[in-house]
């Protein structure tokens, strides 16, 4: 399991190519909505869940995947970018896992991400 308490793990930038890392895990009716990466680690939003990827080892061939289904989210919060603080944040609360927080750098459609999570978690 990825250590989500480590704030340095997920400072993310958009990277559509990062979605390739989770292609083998996707269900037949699952589609990628967005992909973001930090130095090596990243997250991929699908229409059913968020998949966190922890790239391990010197070569990066070993990866740990954590699947966080939207249906198990009990609450979530977003913080939009400001004038001086250009970062935005997403915090998800899971009943069994606790809080998971992601910080995004650059131009990220945080409103669209929040809307997608709401659509898929509030059924």
UniProtKB/TrEMBL annotation:
<feature type="domain" description="Bacterial Pleckstrin homology">
    <location>
        <begin position="11"/>
        <end position="118"/>
    </location>
</feature>
<protein>
    <recommendedName>
        <fullName>Bacterial Pleckstrin homology domain-containing protein</fullName>
    </recommendedName>
</protein>
<dbReference type="InterPro" id="IPR012544">
    <property type="entry name" value="PHb"/>
</dbReference>
<dbReference type="Pfam" id="PF08000">
    <property type="entry name" value="bPH_1"/>
</dbReference>
<dbReference type="InterPro" id="IPR037063">
    <property type="entry name" value="PHb_sf"/>
</dbReference>
């Amino acid at each position: 399991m990825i250590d989500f308490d480590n704030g340095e793990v997920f400072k993310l930038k958009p990277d559509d190519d990062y979605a390739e890392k989770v292609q083998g895990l996707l269900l037949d009716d699952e589609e990628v909505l967005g992909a973001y990466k930090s130095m090596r680690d990243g997250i991929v939003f699908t229409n059913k869940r968020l998949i966190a990827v922890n790239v391990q080892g010197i070569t990066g061939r070993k990866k740990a995947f954590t699947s966080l289904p939207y249906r198990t989210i009990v609450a979530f919060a977003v913080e939009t970018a400001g004038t001086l603080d250009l970062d935005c944040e997403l915090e998800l609360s899971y009943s069994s896992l606790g809080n998971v927080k992601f910080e995004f750098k650059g131009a990220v459609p945080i409103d669209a991400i929040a809307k997608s999570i709401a659509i898929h978690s509030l059924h």
